[in-house]
Amino acid sequence: MCRYTANKSMDNCAFCNADGDFLIVPQTGRLWITTECGKLQISPGEIAVLPQGFRFAVDLPDGPSRGYVAEVFGTHFQLPDLGPIGANGLAAPRDFVVPTAWFEDSYRPDYVIIQKFGGELFTAKQEFSPFNVVAWHGNYAPYKYDLTTFCPFNTVLFDHGDPSINTVLTAPTDKPGVALLDFVIFPPRWLVAEHTFRPPYYHRNCMSEFMGLIYGGYEAKADGFLPGGASLHSCMTPHGPDTKTYEATIARGNEAGPFRISDTLAFMFESCLIPRICPWALESPFIDRDYYQCWIGLRSHFTHEGASAKDGDIQNGEKED
Amino acid sequence: MCRYTANKSMDNCAFCNADGDFLIVPQTGRLWITTECGKLQISPGEIAVLPQGFRFAVDLPDGPSRGYVAEVFGTHFQLPDLGPIGANGLAAPRDFVVPTAWFEDSYRPDYVIIQKFGGELFTAKQEFSPFNVVAWHGNYAPYKYDLTTFCPFNTVLFDHGDPSINTVLTAPTDKPGVALLDFVIFPPRWLVAEHTFRPPYYHRNCMSEFMGLIYGGYEAKADGFLPGGASLHSCMTPHGPDTKTYEATIARGNEAGPFRISDTLAFMFESCLIPRICPWALESPFIDRDYYQCWIGLRSHFTHEGASAKDGDIQNGEKED
Amino acid sequence: MCRYTANKSMDNCAFCNADGDFLIVPQTGRLWITTECGKLQISPGEIAVLPQGFRFAVDLPDGPSRGYVAEVFGTHFQLPDLGPIGANGLAAPRDFVVPTAWFEDSYRPDYVIIQKFGGELFTAKQEFSPFNVVAWHGNYAPYKYDLTTFCPFNTVLFDHGDPSINTVLTAPTDKPGVALLDFVIFPPRWLVAEHTFRPPYYHRNCMSEFMGLIYGGYEAKADGFLPGGASLHSCMTPHGPDTKTYEATIARGNEAGPFRISDTLAFMFESCLIPRICPWALESPFIDRDYYQCWIGLRSHFTHEGASAKDGDIQNGEKED
Amino acid sequence: MCRYTANKSMDNCAFCNADGDFLIVPQTGRLWITTECGKLQISPGEIAVLPQGFRFAVDLPDGPSRGYVAEVFGTHFQLPDLGPIGANGLAAPRDFVVPTAWFEDSYRPDYVIIQKFGGELFTAKQEFSPFNVVAWHGNYAPYKYDLTTFCPFNTVLFDHGDPSINTVLTAPTDKPGVALLDFVIFPPRWLVAEHTFRPPYYHRNCMSEFMGLIYGGYEAKADGFLPGGASLHSCMTPHGPDTKTYEATIARGNEAGPFRISDTLAFMFESCLIPRICPWALESPFIDRDYYQCWIGLRSHFTHEGASAKDGDIQNGEKED
Amino acid sequence: MCRYTANKSMDNCAFCNADGDFLIVPQTGRLWITTECGKLQISPGEIAVLPQGFRFAVDLPDGPSRGYVAEVFGTHFQLPDLGPIGANGLAAPRDFVVPTAWFEDSYRPDYVIIQKFGGELFTAKQEFSPFNVVAWHGNYAPYKYDLTTFCPFNTVLFDHGDPSINTVLTAPTDKPGVALLDFVIFPPRWLVAEHTFRPPYYHRNCMSEFMGLIYGGYEAKADGFLPGGASLHSCMTPHGPDTKTYEATIARGNEAGPFRISDTLAFMFESCLIPRICPWALESPFIDRDYYQCWIGLRSHFTHEGASAKDGDIQNGEKED
Amino acid sequence: MCRYTANKSMDNCAFCNADGDFLIVPQTGRLWITTECGKLQISPGEIAVLPQGFRFAVDLPDGPSRGYVAEVFGTHFQLPDLGPIGANGLAAPRDFVVPTAWFEDSYRPDYVIIQKFGGELFTAKQEFSPFNVVAWHGNYAPYKYDLTTFCPFNTVLFDHGDPSINTVLTAPTDKPGVALLDFVIFPPRWLVAEHTFRPPYYHRNCMSEFMGLIYGGYEAKADGFLPGGASLHSCMTPHGPDTKTYEATIARGNEAGPFRISDTLAFMFESCLIPRICPWALESPFIDRDYYQCWIGLRSHFTHEGASAKDGDIQNGEKED
Fold first, then answer.
1. pLDDT over 90 for what percent of chain C?
2. Nearest 10 degrees: Cα torsion B213, B219, B225, B229
3. Do domains B1-149 and B152-276+291-321 have the same CATH topology?
4. How many angstroms separate the CA atoms of B186 and F303, rounded?
5. In this structure, which of A255, D248, E252, F85 has its CB flanked by the most CB atoms within 10 Å?
6. For residue E8, pLDDT beyond 80
7. CA distance between the termini of chain C
């Protein structure tokens, strides 16, 4: 429907999502996005949110781009409630940037609007640019965010924080504490916890985790998780560091001092829903059918010394709701 | 299943909706509704609500009737919270009228109950009238409302109120501010706003709008929207006054004094959901395939004088959630 | 997938429900349940809850067992808010018992994990027992409850309590007062209400009621409802005591003194949703196609004396929301 | 200020409480109350609520009256949320009765209005009756309630319900579960709990309890608590049945069958605040300075048999918030 | 403490309110306010809010100024929830203006800070200007608002809106619907309601009303309420238009067409608390001891025709809470 | 009233606080506390909470003890909602320890109970030990907590966390986010933030801060703040590190690597209320009248380079509520 130019930019054509909001995470190549509120330029390491109902067109100044897009319905992204973190920390409101107002009042014959509605695409033709909005009120607008402005928190004496401590944006459900979609990042940061297994722990999650990597390596996968790749760990499927990472951690022992994780930017889309995987992905030649092998060879390091039940652990007793 | 008499009334037969509530908006012909709580007589200009689980039968004293019916599931209609309107305004609780208690204790061989359950119809036979309820407590009951008792509010100096200012009843969702179904009317009223474009403005809506007309004309459509007709503007589809209304407004200019809109009663069912249109409607000979032409010929009256971005409009800046 | 031994216990095999929680109501035969938190032994008259994501295996020390299982998604069971009942009554937190911690660190070749995920079953093989959890924090754990510890409340002068007064556990929805699933019991108790029709009253319910009987008889069905049986009364379908129970109650009159219902344990799964009945049940040879006959012969005992509408009953008047 | 007639009725004079609402509990003598909404006649065994701002006058057809009055500020009385009691029980909305509209349009020279405002009394004179209100909307109105229509609930197998189970009306604070004032009654009812100490238990309360007796005797005080009397047990002061009641209960043993408490009507004002006692009460000749003696001679019946700590009772363990 | 210059500006001195927020309503003379966030210039017809903890100094470019100040503790002013008014109306967020950042880095010997804390004034000396803040984040800042940007709503067919429809800002309490302080204005607007008594109605209020007049006349007081004056109507004290206004309204009759109220700006501070009046005000020579005379001579225009109680008005019936 | 033994323990005497809860922070000397639920032994570095209404007696095995006590009314301490910290971090429920059940059934002539009620002390005599409670249900109990089990979080890349990140327990008000009393600690931890001023920043607080020191030094006061001391910074009074700490930080520069703060335990009681200081404290010889001198000599290190207002900082613009 859209005529694409050589570099795959959108030409004489705009898109509009009537169903929900797009969260865009570019991994290679910049995006120049024209919206009814003005222009946003985002590079890998930045993200953009294009809310439901805005018309926009994307130009690719660097040629073909690649990245990740999440779509949410019936809600919008918001900053997480910071709880005891208080007034400052994680993503700050002031670092979310909206476009400078811009419009064009121009004749554009055969201009095409593609509207996504009810999961289908519809087109309409008009004779003028849709970017002719000359005034706008309120804070419902497209915006971008530079992930390097994120201020990470974590444990600073012992133990291991939940990934939720790195939440950038959350699309909530009606149930407190249950997210339709959390956007979480794993940025450069200091590790200082003492007597602690520092890599992401082995766990099952009541949410589904879709991970991607924007640049660098990922601390829990020594091999085989490359920028532009993605993994999906469904609800209640156990997972954790690969064997190589695990054994290296064990070998290092508990006495590791401060360590700075640098040159990495991984992220997670975490949802209370079970994502349906489309045939295009399931049939992709790039699917890693040997992924499970990253855990082959995991050995138990458990010893029975001192393994009696401690007071306060689960025993016959009272269950409070 | 029901044997209908010549005038299409329900005879020896009652209906029951086990799935949800009916909101009935007659447009021509009165309805005499017998319910387990008593009898309701409604005429065009009045509405009735028949809640989930009540058995009722409808007689048509004027012969065939015509109108609109909305059904809501999992919630009930309630008055909107009035906010700063305070204690009085819009629809008043005292104008919602329930039936006077009435019952019959009579033998009715082959009486048929039709129950709508899970979207399907089931029938059962019994030998007595279902309208044999001799006592009832509480305020879960059928009721009717006369739309002329609605007390409309609007702007009284400048600018243009949202249609929500005319909400009669709302069926809420769990999300504050998001309605499963708002029932909104456009009744006779004074227009006094100065320096303002008075007709309904051009907009896209995150809700879907189903409009109908009970009598008179509709202020935003000079032609082609007749009593008994209906229009549907889906989520994020732009719409507004037709070309004729728009040009007449422009011609009139900004200096219009007080004007009384009389002899009209339009309404809207507005929902956060996307309505699915049934084949009966899509294939109807009455469908207006030229509806879009009401906007053909719309001209831009925008001039570039003074069109710089004003302080306070959208610019690079902070986005609060 | 699981190899079952002669008595149908699970052997070298564990199950995990990634979709939701199981509420298990055994009716005959004990269950010895091994979980990652330890072992639970339940007998008929007790219930067990196995939350989403826990691996468990079931042994049947008495041979084949029989009972009822409910599954809830997206929420967990909790105690009902007691309202004016205050600090004590119905099910007490202290009577919900979690397992004593137990683990095995053993080699188990070809051990099979069956995971229910998205309504389908998946299997995985491993070489060790899954019951190797040596520490656990928090109160997310399997638990059991002995229904004889339930402290029932009811009317103690006149009138008839709602069944909700016997709620043991509730799985809430986001809407206050609307349960995804209420687990309600009808235990032994005193009936003392004066001038009152004491059996469960005739009614239609906006929820769907699935009833079962653990032992003894059920007060509202003189015949034909046996331990291990079940009935389903869908949303808005009228139901109540059978003819025999009704006539016996009428014959007894209003002057019945205190009466102790003993030796009975019926229960109800009550849901705001409409349960879909699987073909296995619809085609069962055990389905009771004559169930409706339990109400054949019901006679009206209504007399018109004094049957005028009382002040305060429904009349033309105000409807408050 | 008001001229009282021989029987102490208010003559040519009306009262208005600008500070809060009055809850009136007459104990002897009827009250004929004229309000701006009409007339209410209440007798002992009924209560009346006169909300903030209504003008009223009281006539005493039986001569001097006696009773109890509570005043609440900043909130109003409401029915308690019934919790699992469901739709029916305790006080029913339909039994709260408002006056039939009545007005007089008459010349009344030197009519006096006494207004309580900020804890002080102010007077104004006017020449007409204040009961000249010819129309009124809404449900903010004086009302009365007959305490015999209260439908009591309690335990019907074992154990002992909290007094809150007998709440008629509650004036809430902003904190859920904490009442500014609960109005609780102890009406005739059946006691059937088995193996249970049936009188009100010994306890300390985080609320303050003011008790009164309308007629009959009170089950926990064998002597010395007469109709028209009152007791006050402040926050955290231990109290319970008197020695005589206690020893009689012990003598009776655990095997008591159903017992009907009749001919009694006690009540309680229970508040989260500490009531300040006015000098008039502290210096009254009717104060019972020997009240504490009702507990003299209480003996311990505790035996050490089986008194080891049970699993599940308090031990070193986890405290959930 | 502060040295005032001839025109009473604050010189080498700043004030800080540690207790709460100031809402300033100038009535004559402009205020140039320097704050730690920058400078605000306000004129009569504008308001300013100086939140708790900000240091500020005020200059008076026009010489002595006069106006009204309200102080709120423990909460802040916010926009009212608009309810059915929807997205636009009353005061718009975009019209609240914060200062452009400004600072001075200067030596100021003997500079005095006056801090209001716990209702008392404390002073401290320092050697530098307090207006040395070079960066600030967040939206906790002083702001001003031009009252002519307020978009008034009201009834546009019949009946009379509550004053709350003109709420500019509200300082809420913890109780929904109950304001610590509402700031309400009565701006120029069209009156169009038919068959309606248009002036503010006679009423008693559960809140206390402090009114002031910024310029022009006030529609309900034909005489004696001048710009710069104030009236206080305490909780439950009846009040309404003066006799002259009332008689003029009656004379005009029900058939008045559209009428534009122009050249007026009255306002109200409305609080759920009872304001304590300071001796300075009670002993002022400017107190109007004859205020009550504005209502002398009010006559009843009530006729008994048709004055029977209508169905639906208050009668014996059900009281819902 | 209590007879104290040589080491000041309570002998034949128990205390009960009917008004509120005590939070006890010992600084020197252990406390052996006997309660109705059993015995708690706490040492400096641990805290105890004794809730409203429990009787307790304190023995001092080490002789005189010293420490801090806070009392809260109308609410109880709870764990803070962790927000994005998720499931683990700060104080864990499992580390709050309640006593093992213990009772004595003994004759104790002239035993004295001292009850604090309404801010006054009352005494009563009895002949038996009050620690005769043989059973107890629920989780309303005294408890203790070892502050070394606290798992601190903080920034791990740049910037500076709010003190609220170290909240151990909070006593909430009805207003979300506003604490009656927060108990906050400053425990040993790693500092790793880059390009950041690491000591507690200079600020004014809308809460009042009472600080104490249990052992070691406090990072923001190089001199003069000793274990057992206390400081109070009232609402909106500016404060921060002393001059010596500030200059040392500036001298160290921005390039400081990871640094472990060890051997320190400071804490804060932070309240939304203004504490009233009793004469005993104001007239103490230990009051530090030169405290303000710790800030004498603070110099400005601000340079004007680059100090223009940045886009996104406060300017004329929109204020969102």
1. 81
2. -10
3. yes
4. 63
5. F85
6. no
7. 55
Beta bridge partners of D239: D203
Max CA distance (Å), chain B: 80
* Inter-chain contacts counted by CB atoms under 8 A, chains C and E: 14
| Spatial distance between the Cα atoms of B97 and B80, rounded to a whole number of angstroms | 18
Phi, psi angle pair for D90, to nearest 5°: 55, -135
User: Is B203 one of the annotated active-site residues of the chain?
Assistant: yes
Task: Give CA–CA dist A312/A317, Å, rounded.
Answer: 10
Show me where the domains of chain E are located.
1-149, 152-276+291-321
Structure tokens at F175: 């207003």
The first and second tokens of residue D19, run together, are 């500070």
Tokens matching residue A58: 């994307």
Q: Taking CA D69 as the corner, what is the angle to CA D65 and CA D75, rounded to the nearest 5 degrees? A: 150
State the chains in contact with A (3 or more Cβ–Cβ pairs under 8 Å). Answer: B, C, D, E, F
Q: What is the DSSP letter of E78?
A: B
The residue type of F171 is A
Please provide the distance, in angstroms rounded to a whole number, between the alpha carbons at the two ends of chain E. 55
Pairing of β A55-59 and β A107-117: unpaired
- Secondary structure percentages of chain E, helix, strand, coil, to 5: 10, 40, 50
Pick from F73, F77, F53: nearest CA to F136:
F53
Q: Does domain A1-149 have CATH number 2.60.120.10?
A: yes
Bridge partners, F72 (sequence order): F21
Query: Which of E238, E213, E242, E237 is CA-nearest to residue E226?
Result: E213
The per-type count for chain B, helices as H runs and strands as E runs, is 2, 21
F312 and B320 in contact by Cβ < 8 A? no
pLDDT at C8: 61
Residues 6+ apart with CB under 8 A from D184: D163, D164, D166, D167, D168, D267, D268, D270
pTM for the complete prediction? Answer: 0.94
Q: Is F203 a catalytic residue?
A: yes
Nearest residue of C to residue A203, measured between CA atoms: C53
Q: Distance between CA C89 and CA C93 in Å, rounded?
A: 10
Q: What pLDDT does F303 receive?
A: 85
Could you please state the CATH topology (level 3) that the domain comprising C152-276+291-321 is classified under. Answer: Jelly Rolls (2.60.120)
Contacts of B316 in chain A (CB under 8 A): 97-100
The complex's ipTM works out to: 0.91
Q: Which chain C positions have a beta carbon within 8 Å of B37's beta carbon?
A: 314
* CA dist., res. F319 & res. E77, Å (int): 12
Its sign, for the CA torsion C69, C70, C75, C80, is: negative
CA atoms of D113 and B4, how far apart (whole Å): 66
Give tens-digit pLDDT for F104-123.
Answer: 999 999 999 999 999 999 99
Rounded CA separation D65/D228 (Å): 11
Structure token digits, residue F76: 């109880």
- DSSP H helices, chain F, are 243-252, 279-282
Determine the residue among C316, C319, C320 to mutate to test chain B binding: the one whose Cβ has the most chain B Cβ atoms within 10 Å. Answer: C319
Of F94, F137, F138, the CB nearest to C137: F94
Ramachandran class of B192: left when φ > 0, alpha when ψ lies in -120 to 50, beta otherwise: alpha
Q: Quick one: DSSP state of residue A165?
A: G
Extended beta strands in C263-319, E state: 264-271
Task: Answer yes or no: F76 catalytic.
Answer: no
To test the contact with chain A by mutation, choose from C73, C117, C121, C129 the residue with the greatest count of A C-beta atoms within 10 A, namely C117
What integer pLDDT is reported at residue A306 of this predicted model? 61
Is the pLDDT assigned to residue E5 strictly greater than 70? Answer: no
Shortest distance, CA E142 to any CA of chain F (angstroms): 10
Find the catalytic residue in E46, E104, E195, E209: E209
Q: Which amino acid does the sequence have at E259?
A: F
